[in-house]
Amino acid sequence: MTQGRTRINRALSGEVPPGPLLVKGWVRTVRRTKNLTFVALNDGSCLESLQIVVDTDLPGYAESTNLGTGACVEARGELVASPAAGQPWELHAHELRVLGAADADYPLQKKRHGFEYLRSIAHLRLRSNTFGAVFRVRSALSFAIHRFFQERGFLYVQTPIITANDCEGAGEMFRVSTLDPIDPPRLDGAVDWTRDFFGERTGLTVSGQLQGEAFACAFSDIYTFGPTFRAENSNTSRHAAEFWMIEPEMAFADLAADCRLAADFIQYLCRYALDNCSEDLKFFDNFVEKGLIEKLGSLADAEFQQLTYTDAIKELQASGRTFEFSPVWGSDLQSEHERFLSEQVVKGPLFVTDYPKDIKAFYMRLNDDGKTVAAMDCLVPRVGEIIGGSQREERLDVLAQRMREAGIAPESLGWFLDLRRWGTCPHAGFGLGFERLLMYVTGMTNIRDVIPFPRTPGNARF
Amino acid sequence: MTQGRTRINRALSGEVPPGPLLVKGWVRTVRRTKNLTFVALNDGSCLESLQIVVDTDLPGYAESTNLGTGACVEARGELVASPAAGQPWELHAHELRVLGAADADYPLQKKRHGFEYLRSIAHLRLRSNTFGAVFRVRSALSFAIHRFFQERGFLYVQTPIITANDCEGAGEMFRVSTLDPIDPPRLDGAVDWTRDFFGERTGLTVSGQLQGEAFACAFSDIYTFGPTFRAENSNTSRHAAEFWMIEPEMAFADLAADCRLAADFIQYLCRYALDNCSEDLKFFDNFVEKGLIEKLGSLADAEFQQLTYTDAIKELQASGRTFEFSPVWGSDLQSEHERFLSEQVVKGPLFVTDYPKDIKAFYMRLNDDGKTVAAMDCLVPRVGEIIGGSQREERLDVLAQRMREAGIAPESLGWFLDLRRWGTCPHAGFGLGFERLLMYVTGMTNIRDVIPFPRTPGNARF
User: Fold this and answer.
1) In this complex, is the C-beta atom of B130 within 8 Å of any C-beta atom belonging to chain A?
2) Name one GO biological process term (chains A, B) (predicted).
3) Domain coordinates of chain B in residue numbers?
4) Three-state SS sequence of B182-243
């Protein structure tokens, strides 16, 4: 009886029904001996390839001369225990068919390529071991994020991408428009945005938090998971113009509850990766970051410490260590400070809380001291900040005052103030940059290598 | 012993630990008698509100005079079986605290408001029965979409939002830029896009399909689920400038396999909604679309019929019915044709396949007749088209020729052609507009009412 295609991860598990198997995939390597050809076939369902053993007597074998690296092939045959080391099963082919040939120009030959070269062929790097593993982990953790929140009764909300709120957070915004770019309608020497598609000036969102707060003030516990944007011309290994963020928001929560959720969330994701992506994580541990699995395991089991910003500054000042930037109360913590705190001071993950109000956003709740706000950053060894959050200012008058101090006209966010005008409630939330998390979990050190088709200054290819 | 907050859906289930309960939420209605006040409290965890019974002797009751509709309240008390009809449990308050007052200006008073008015307070309509139900279903079905694909071994890929491909599909694109809008750099009288952020002209994606194909040609089975955009100035109840799409893509699949996946997918989502959103669906069935639950149940159990486009045209022509647009071979099917086919001809859901190539996109696989392509539209009663898909053209020369015919320079999508140059494979996929599905499942008739904060011509508020 003919069966449909069996995925290679299932074939390699050996748990398949009796009878001939049909597998399809792309050739990673071909090795020929006098009587046999060995083809390593990969279909992206797992890291490992399945070895196909082809007898040169096989009808249609002649065709297999155009069986180069990169070719797409289907093979039907018997799954048998493999005599070769490192693979439990191999397929003895009865039938072999090349669906799509690949010649010697195929850009992904067997030799190891540098990541920079692979970025230039982002549509093909997916067929390499490293990027296969990266994007399997990305998919698994995306699902884990939804599972985590849905299991806890959080509502998922897709907040808007195009926004007219120009004060959502820090960072430059991309403009979105359909006006004639060379000769836009003008009014008093400026562009007349009232004639644009949305009737006002719009850009790409830098955060879904403000809209998330509206949802939390109706559904209590919500989360967003969507793309966000920064038009910053910074060509670093940690910045992209387009990236995905997760932003939970909880009504009736204070800063302590916010920290608890953040710790549970990170630990859940580490454990999920360890349980569900073990083959790919082993690969990263071997070839990308030694000790990765141990790092994830210890974060999954760690106790998160807590330190106020004021105490953190004292610790840094008392450390006797020379930093590039001197730690001074009132200045933001630098990456070197954050890593020192987690790696040397508490030797593990921690929350730094209660930052000076002047270095934090207007919507963070003012503490009773009048100087600090109920903000938290979650710092982890080797990376520094991985999550930033806060309790939100729920008092109408205080919020309006903070907006004025930040140079934002309260009227421009009237709807946001309405949430405090009627039925206001304490609430808190945080944001996690998904790619930062992926870099942590895979050990990849360039954000361009954990995004399917990264967008950075000068690059919107593919 | 003090417990944390209990969600109202759990309180209403009666399955709570013994002892006093703490609930928090927003007041829907207040009814006062001489000795008692009855407060309907809702926290968004379910449609139903919990009745809080407050004795006027309660300490702090005086405070409850500012307990109007919309106020945010916490109440602690005993959950007891309710003597009132239609609610199994109510809470006898020992303690009541107003967290956030709401005065008589609160825009969402008890009376029924029209949907158009509610759109003008999209940040508050979330606290109404209808929109509570809509966004709970939206969240549940978002998760169901991920579950469906992950259970079947499909990899989730987040395709880019900002794109330089200007031929992704039909429809006008929004421009994304950081150039000076009033005085952009010029070259030969045109805007010099090489000096823009990405070094070329970019816009917002209309589909993740092309990038999804690259992933399918490495991981075999993949899906996207993300925002897409149309800069069309059409103010209809079915069009939005920003909406979410689901686009699966399968290597080694033909059109028949594509149709099977589409039918399984729709039926899974209907069943998931029936099983997991029954309280909200009952509400829609009572107040929004009579017969909704039966409609969903019959789609979940239906056999999907199949009809070629050519046969569909014959059926329409032979029907003797007068249509606004005459059905003619070579023209696209109109909504009236689609509904007639599903409601009158096959009396259920169906796939129309093999459309004339000239009315379909360049990437659809050319059939052997040279005139039609392996496209499919899935039509359902009352709506018409809900899914569109195709087998993709995997032959390099045919695809390049089809691009030239469509006026697209093959070099402009060199990476897309590369997928056919090396290791090409048959593959197929489809797209489902998430909001169209939500309209079908909830019975809501305006797309603005199933999107958290809709973007339409002239409107990017909130």
Assistant:
1) no
2) asparaginyl-tRNA aminoacylation
3) 8-100, 125-170+206-449, 171-203
4) CCCCEECCEECHHHCCCCCCEEECCCCHHHHHHHHHHHCEEEEEEEEECCCCCCCCCCCCEE
**Among B residues 170-229, those touching chain A with beta carbons less than 8 Å apart:** 172, 174-179, 181-182, 184, 186, 189-191, 197-200, 202, 204, 211, 214-215, 217-220, 226-227, 229
Nearest to A231 among B155, B197, B419 (CB): B197
Mean pLDDT of A368-385: 94
Q: Please compute, for residue A320, the number of CA atoms within 13 A of its CA located in the half-sphere on the CB side.
A: 0
Region of poorest pLDDT, from A58-72, A133-147, B283-297:
A58-72
| Contact in structure between A246 and A431 (CB atoms under 8 Å) | yes
Cβ contact A460–B160 (<8 Å) = yes
Q: Residue B242: its chain A contacts at CB < 8 A? A: 160-162
Q: Which whole number is the average pLDDT over A9-32?
A: 93
Band of the pLDDT at B171, cuts 50, 70, 90? low
Q: How far is B174 from chain A (nearest CA, A)?
A: 6
Closest among B425, B407, B368, B383 to B250, alpha carbons compared: B425
**Residue B169, pLDDT above cutoff 70:** no
Instruction: Check CB contact of B308 with chain A, cutoff 8 Å.
Output: no
Q: Do B418 and A123 touch (CB under 8 A)?
A: yes
Residue B182, class by beta-carbon neighbours within 10 Å (0-12 exposed, 13-18 middle, 19+ buried)?
Answer: exposed
pLDDT for residue B1:
43
The partner residue sitting opposite B198, judged by closest CB among A138, A199, A455, is A455
State the pLDDT at residue A64: 67
What is the CATH class of B8-100? mainly beta
- Tokens 């392509």 — which residue? B373
pLDDT band at A62 (very low <50, low <70, confident <90, very high): low
pLDDT over threshold 60, residue B74: yes
Mean pLDDT of the B47-70 span? 85
CA of B290, closest CA in chain A: separation in Å?
A: 26
The reply to whether residue A422 touches residue B158, judged by beta carbons under 8 angstroms, is no
B99/A contact by beta carbon, under 8 A: yes
- A65 burial (CB, 10 Å; 0-12 / 13-18 / 19+) is exposed
Confidence of residue B285 (pLDDT cuts 50, 70, 90): very high
**Residue A170: predicted pLDDT:** 52
For the question of whether the overall pTM of this predicted structure is more than 0.90, the answer is yes
Q: Which of A386-390, B130-134, B166-170 has the lowest mean pLDDT?
A: B166-170
- Cβ-Cβ pairs closer than 8 A, A with B, add up to 328
**Confidence category of residue A1, pLDDT binned at 50, 70, 90:** very low
Tell me which chain B residues have a C-beta less than 8 angstroms from the C-beta of A462: 160, 165, 211, 214, 415
- From the list A103, A127, A462, the residue facing B211 with the nearest CB is A462
Mutate to test the interface with A, among B3, B178, B210 (most CBs of A within 10 A): B178
For residue A123, list chain B residues with Cβ-Cβ distance below 8 A: 211, 214, 415-416, 418-419
- Structure ipTM: 0.97
C-alpha to C-alpha distance for B178 and B175, rounded to whole angstroms: 10
Superfamily of domain A125-170+206-449 in the CATH hierarchy: Bira Bifunctional Protein; Domain 2 (3.30.930.10)
Assess contact for A47 and A60: CB atoms under 8 A.
no
